[in-house]
Amino acid sequence: MTKRPVIGISAGDPAGIGPEVIVKALALKEIYDICKPLVISDFDIMRDAIKIAGVGLGLNRTNTDMLLSAKCGLYKAGTIDVLDIKNVDMENHIYGKIEAKSGKSAFEYIKKVIELALAGEIDATVTAPIHKEALNLAGFHYAGHTEIYSDLTKTKDYVMMLVDDNFRIAHVSTHVSMKMACELVKKDRIIKVIKLTNEMLRRLDIENPRIAVAGLNPHAGEGGLFGDEEIREIIPAIESARKLGINADGAFPPDTIFSRAKGGEFDAVIAMYHDQGHIALKTAGFVYDKDGKWSSISGVNVTLGLPIIRTSVDHGVAFDKAGVGIANPQSMIQAIKLAVKLAS
After folding, report:
1. Rounded to a whole number, what is the distance in angstroms from the first to the last CA of the chain?
2. In terms of C-beta density within 10 A (0-12 exposed, 13-18 middle, 19 or more buried), how is residue 180 classed?
3. Which of 207, 223, 206, 205 is nearest to 215 (CA)?
4. What is the rounded distance in angstroms from the CA atom of residue 43 to the CA atom of residue 20?
5. Residues 184, 178: Cα–Cα separation, whole Å
6. Cβ-based neighbour number of residue 215 at 10 Å
C-alpha cells in the first residue's frame, strides 16, 4: 500500500474495555504498516489504558486550535495519537460501572469521529463498544452505534453486517423487539438489504456474490404451515433482486443455511432479525473456555449504506473485565484491518 489511510477509532464507553483493546491493537507494528490510526478519546483514559494493558507505548495529543486535528498525528509505531476530548475526571472514574457521564463521553467520541470522516479528515471510522443504558442515561436516546451513525450522517437506509473472514451475515432488522422484528419482514426492506449486501461484497472484490436469504419461520415456513412471511414477503423480494441481476437465493431454513454459508456455499446470508444472525456468527467466532476466558472473539460489525466507512468490534463493554488487563483485542484488530481494506 503506497498511501496509508487515516483510521479514526472512537474509544467507546471509558468504563469498559474499549480503550484497553485499542491499546493492545495499536501495540502491533503491523497496524501502522497499513494505516495511520487516530484515537478519539480522553488523553488520560488512554494513558491509563496503556498501564492496564501493560504495554510500553507513548502518547501524542493531536489537538490544535482547529476544529479538526487529524493532520497533527505522528502515526508511527510505538506512539498512540489521541484527539483529546477532555471530558473524563480520572479522580472519580470507575471501571465497570454504568454511569451517565461515561455515556456522554462515549457519544462525544462517536460524534467527533463522524465529523472527521464527513469532513474528509479521516478515511474510515472504527468504533469500540458502548453501553446503551449509559448512553440513554446521558440523554442520548439511541438503540446503538448504528442508529447514531444513521442520524448524524442523515442516512435513511442502512444495514448491519457481521463479518468473520468469509462468513458474512446482514440483517433485515436489529435492535427492536421480537414482535416488531417479525413486523419488519417486508419485501421492500429485504430488497434494500440484499442490494446493499451485494454492493459491499463487490467492494470486497467478489465479482458475482452468492447471497442466501434465510426464512423467518421454522423450516422457512414449510409451504405456509408454520407461517406465510416467506410466501408473502421474502420470496417475492428474492425474485425482485434476481431481476436486478443479483445472485440471490432462498428462502432457506434458518437452522441450516448459516452452516452452508460458513462452509463456503454462499458469500453472505441475509438474516431476518438480530439474534438469528448474531447467534450464528458468534457461535462460530467466539470461544469461551472452561476456565472462564474468551480464547477467541472473532468478528467485525460493518454498517452498510453510510456515506462514510464504519467498522466495529463485535462485542460489548465487558464491564466484568474492564480495568484488569485481560481483554481480548482480536475483534478490534480485525475491525481496523477491514476498515483499511474498505478505505483502500
Report:
1. 8
2. exposed
3. 223
4. 13
5. 10
6. 25
Per-residue model confidence (pLDDT) at position 1: 45
Residue with cell 479521516: 122
For residue range 195-208, list pLDDT tens digits in order.
999 999 999 999 99
The residues with which 212 forms a beta bridge, in sequence order, are 249, 269
How far is 237 from 255, CA to CA, in rounded Å? 21
pLDDT digit string, tens, across residues 143-188: 889 899 999 999 999 999 999 989 999 999 998 999 999 999 999 9
Q: What is the pLDDT at residue 64?
A: 65
Model pLDDT, residue 153: 97
Q: Compute the mean pLDDT over every residue in the chain, rounded to the nearest whole number.
A: 93
DSSP structure class, residue 230: I
Count the Cβ atoms, other than its own, within 10 Å of residue 83.
29
Any bridge partners for residue 36, and if so which? Answer: 6
Question: CB pairs under 8 A, 24+ apart, for 70-74?
Answer: 70/6, 70/8, 70/38, 70/116, 70/121, 70/122, 71/121, 73/6, 73/36, 73/38
DSSP state letters, 289-311 = -TTS-EEEE--EEEEES-SS-EE
Beta bridge pairs of residue 294: 288
pTM of the model: 0.89
